[in-house]
Write a structure and sequence with these properties.
By secondary structure, the protein is mainly alpha-helical. The chain has 18 helices and no strands. The chain is globular and about 65 Å long.
Length: 417
């Protein structure tokens, strides 16, 4: 009985130290399982099942993504003023409906409209989620955020496995099941948020500008650097698979193996590393560490083109191992700086701005990686590695600048007195 009680207590601690933490972890996990189901098969559904040309599908998703970029900051501001939980629940409901509507798509125009609605709701939900994480995090926010990201990664892995089974079936019914499964995950996530307490809205200081984040120069710089450093994500998902297939003798199964190594390693190390990165100063140093790790991993990936087949496979997997470690440090730095530099009463709009920077980087990443890096070959990999290292090197100075320009507690008290 004692052993069982201790085991149950350990499981509960791993899934959160309080009921609100466990609720938000469960909601995020559910949502990401659905994302994993859909993301792995969405393009194939619209091209193979619906019959739309790939160019039209790409154009529709690009238009939706660009329009959705602008929704995060006003959505975050709304969450700050009306409450993060109700705003996020409303956005999730819109995502559920728009996702389910995709099974009715038969034209490019319909896909563009529905995808745009979904992307706007996703941007609003992302900003509100950031504000909600701060309220739920409690006394050890870094530990909670690390646990949250661990379960988010695990959810994506499980969803991707489910998508693989549907892709193997390759029927319209299988693809529709994935889409409706993602829609159901949005709805279930919204329902789970009902279990959270109603956190009161934090009052803004008097005479404060409506969109404070746009006047915060250190945070604006960090949002730009974070968006640029975000190019490291499609290195594994886009750039490396192309490099393996076109420039190395590594077997094709290496592509699947690298995804497994990347996801599994992030799941296993996120809590251990992320829980120690709490302050903005910690975040600045972690950002620098991430850049140095990418400085090592990118040349290793490039070198795989000059080695025999099995050596190439081993080198690529080792490179992904180092790159995954950099990813954990980079995401932990993003949490520490992104939340630590934002005032509590404006977390929503600040997270919306950070999401805007990250999403803009992800939108530009395919063009940059496939034209510049692949176009230059090995020199492109070295340029990319140097860029990551330079971005990371700015982390400690940025953290000091950001902390130095935060309002002093005594000044804030005088302003509200």
């Amino acid at each position: 009985m004692i052993k069982g009680g201790l085991a149950g207590s350990g499981i509960r601690r791993m899934a959160g130290d309080s009921r609100p933490e466990r609720v938000l972890i469960a909601a995020s996990f559910t949502n990401r399982v659905g994302n994993g189901l859909f993301n792995a098969a969405s393009a194939l559904y619209f091209t193979l099942i619906v019959g739309l040309p790939a160019v039209q599908v790409g154009a529709a998703l690009t238009i939706a993504g660009v329009i959705g970029l602008g929704a995060g900051i006003p959505g975050g501001h709304l969450a700050d003023r009306r409450g993060a939980r109700p705003v996020m629940m409303a956005a999730l409901a819109v995502q559920a409906v728009s996702m389910a509507a995709l099974v009715l798509v038969e034209s490019w125009a319909a896909l563009t409209i529905i995808a745009t609605v979904g992307q706007i709701a996703a941007a609003v939900a992302g900003a509100a989620w950031g504000a909600l994480v701060v309220r739920v995090g409690g006394e050890r926010p870094a530990l909670f955020r690390a646990k949250l990201r661990t379960f988010v990664n695990l959810g994506v892995i499980l969803g991707t496995v489910g998508a693989g089974l549907a892709l193997a079936a390759d029927t319209r019914g299988a693809y529709v099941t994935l889409i409706l499964g993602n829609a159901a995950s949005f709805a279930l996530c919204a329902v789970l948020l009902l279990l959270l307490p109603r956190y009161p809205v934090l009052a803004a200081p008097p005479r404060q500008q409506r969109l404070l984040a746009f006047t915060d120069r250190p945070f604006l710089v960090f949002a730009a650097l974070y968006g640029a450093m975000g190019l490291q994500y499609p290195v594994v998902s886009l750039l490396l698979p192309i490099w393996i297939s076109e420039h190395t003798e590594a077997p094709r199964w290496t592509v699947a193996a690298l995804f497994a190594v990347n996801s599994l390693f992030c799941v296993l190390t996120q809590t251990r590393i992320g829980s120690r990165i709490e302050t903005p100063y910690d975040g600045g140093r972690a950002f620098r560490t991430a850049g140095l790790l990418f400085l090592v991993s990118c040349p290793m990936m490039a070198l795989a083109a000059y080695t025999p087949v099995w050596a190439a496979a081993g080198l690529v997997l080792a490179a992904v191992f180092v790159h995954s470690l950099g990813e954990v440090w980079e995401s932990s730095a993003g949490f520490a700086l992104g939340f630590g530099l934002a005032p509590d009463h404006a977390q929503g709009q600040y997270q919306g701005l950070l999401g805007l920077g990250f999403s803009a980087g992800q939108a530009l990443a395919p063009a940059i990686l496939t034209t510049v890096v692949l176009g230059l070959g090995t020199a492109g990999w070295l340029l990319l590695a140097s860029s990551f290292a330079a971005l990371g090197a700015a982390g400690p100075a940025l953290a000091r600048w950001g902390v130095r320009t935060r309002p002093r507690p005594d000044a804030a008290a005088d302003a509200t007195g």
